[in-house]
Write a structure and sequence with these properties.
single chain; alpha/beta; 7-stranded parallel beta sheet; 6-stranded mixed beta sheet; 16 helices; 32% helix; globular
Length: 533
């Protein structure tokens, strides 16, 4: 009988440990989360269960000769080198959604404490006071709460807010009205939510698009009587801007369970403000959440070791019969095509059609499609989407995916093509190929043939096939210290419209980009930043 050696570096409940110890084909080794001891123990481990205190990096994985599964307690994956794990065929899994109720309840507790002045009243009594007239709060009934993000936690927040008699607004650009079961939740734009809400509560994923979604401009739209609550991720708020708004009376208060740096620096401008409530990232710190997290991770890890189930795996397992090293460049190509489709679509994507041509792509429909969807969705939901769950996330967001044949595309030996349709009836085709079987290249966008590397800072703009455009663009960017590293222009016909892709060494400032869009030869322009190799 095979014995699975499971290395545990974090506290789990006694029930979870008993489950493993009662299993005859499991051996458990519990050690402190210390680097030296972990490096000594990891060579014999088939599975590793950890939290954010342990770094599962390339060095550790190189020493993990037998490792098959990494189980991360909680939803975050910081500190786990997923790419290195994937290259070694190690499954990485987490436990999303398990702490949604605990986080929602904690968030509501913070809201109640803000609106009723609970903390200051407590300290008043503690210090011998009894100033009831000093602690006049506000009811939640009839107030408007704005939820930025309407995923697992956001939906539970909406349920609780409705029970309190609140009006519920939600901002989530990638959720359709029809996807909300409760019609009492109204989807609105971010600006409208900020202007109308008495309480703004953050529940979105940490992505480049949501970084500092609450900044100086956002705070200027809010009512002076409004509150901000964040138990999601510290990067969602510009802490200096929030502190300035609170000190200047432009915002009534804030409650924070998360910070940009944890624990926060003693000089953090929010620490010590009288109208701010702080808690030390305890949104999931309940007996029930820890019980459920512990049991879920040990069952997931055990099932994955036995090959029974791979639920909540966040990477693509090593595919039998195909070397990952040979497949990986095509996976990266598909991801970049998906990312470009996201950035270039002029509406919410509703349909995706894929076509793969060439012998090297035989049998790769599923991995390439999930890679493409991952690239398309990652700018929206961040690390919440991965190779395993991308089709499910797409389905949840109302995106219909099909395989097709006969797209009007260029002729390459091996070609990855994707057509998307967005709201309004428009569509777009992007095709790509590998050069030297390693380097991803985009070779077609709609009717325009092109040839560019999909990485770094790109400017994609439509223009006209007339003289002088190269000179005008070069002069404008040169005067603004923007260096053009590569220029690719495709035209549908002589004297007609063109599509140009510039690779830049520096990003274009917003003001300059807006000016560029007003030029008489520019039909449209989009700046895109993609990962570099």
């Amino acid at each position: 009988m095979t014995t699975y050696h499971i290395l545990i570096t974090t506290a789990l409940t006694s029930e979870a440990l008993d489950f493993l110890r009662r299993t005859p084909d499991v051996s458990v080794n519990i050690i402190p989360p210390e680097r030296a001891g972990l490096l000594r123990a990891i060579p014999e481990a088939d599975a590793l269960i950890l939290r954010e205190t342990v770094q599962a990096d390339a060095e550790l994985l190189a020493a993990a000769k037998r490792l098959k599964v990494i189980g991360r307690v909680g939803v975050g994956l910081s500190g786990v080198d997923i790419e290195a794990a994937t290259e070694r065929g190690v499954i990485v899994m987490n436990t999303p959604g398990t702490n949604a109720i605990s986080t929602a309840e904690h968030t509501f507790g913070l809201i109640l404490a803000l609106c009723r002045g609970t903390i200051s009243a407590h300290h008043d009594v503690l210090n011998g006071g009894w100033g009831r007239e000093m602690h006049i709060g506000a009811e939640l009934y009839g107030k408007t709460i704005g939820l930025i993000g309407i995923g697992r936690v956001g939906r539970r927040m909406a349920e609780r807010a409705i029970a309190f008699g609140m009006d519920v607004l939600a901002y989530d650009p990638y959720v359709a009205e029809a996807q909300l079961a409760d019609l009492r939740v109204k989807l609105v734009g971010l600006e409208e939510l900020l202007r109308r809400s008495d309480i703004v509560s953050l529940h979105c994923a940490a992505t480049p698009e949501t970084r500092r979604i609450i900044d100086t401009e956002a705070l200027s739209l809010m009512r002076p009587s409004a509150y901000v609550v964040n138990a999601a991720h510290g990067s969602l708020i510009d802490e200096a801007a929030l502190a300035a708004a609170l000190r200047g009376g432009r915002l009534a208060g804030a409650a924070l369970d998360v910070f940009n740096q944890e624990p926060p620096d003693p000089n953090n401008p929010l620490i010590g403000l009288p109208n701010v409530i702080h808690t030390p990232h305890i949104g999931d710190a309940t007996i029930e959440a820890q019980r459920d997290l512990s049991m879920q991770i040990v069952r997931q890890v055990y099932d994955a070791l036995r090959g029974a189930d791979y639920r909540n795996a966040v990477n693509m397992p090593f595919m039998p019969g195909r070397a990952f090293e040979a497949i990986a460049p095509y996976m990266r190509l598909a991801e970049r095509i998906g990312a470009l489709q996201h950035h270039m679509a002029r509406g919410r994507i509703r349909r995706v059609a894929v076509e793969y041509k060439g012998e090297e792509l035989d049998g790769l429909v599923k991995p390439l499609t999930v890679a493409l969807l991952k690239g398309m969705l990652e700018p929206v939901v961040g690390e919440a989407v991965n190779y395993i769950n991308a089709p499910l996330v797409a389905m949840e967001r109302g995106i219909h995916v099909t395989q097709t044949k006969g797209l009007d595309v260029v002729d390459y030996t091996n070609l990855v093509s994707c057509q998307v349709h967005w709201e309004g009836g428009q569509h777009q085709v992007i095709s790509g190929a590998l050069f030297n079987r390693k380097e991803p290249r985009i070779v077609q966008i709609d009717e325009y043939r092109t040839d560019f590397v999909p990485s770094g800072i790109l400017l994609v703009f439509g223009s006209y096939d007339v003289p002088g455009i190269i000179g005008r663009v070069g002069t404008l960017f040169g005067e603004n210290n923007i260096n053009i590293a590569a220029w690719r222009t495709g035209r549908a016909e002589k004297g007609g419209q063109t599509l140009t892709v510039l690779t830049l060494d520096q990003p274009i400032p917003d003001a300059l980009l807006e000016h560029f869009r007003t030029l008489d030869f520019v039909r449209h322009a989009t700046q895109i930043t993609l990962p570099t190799p």
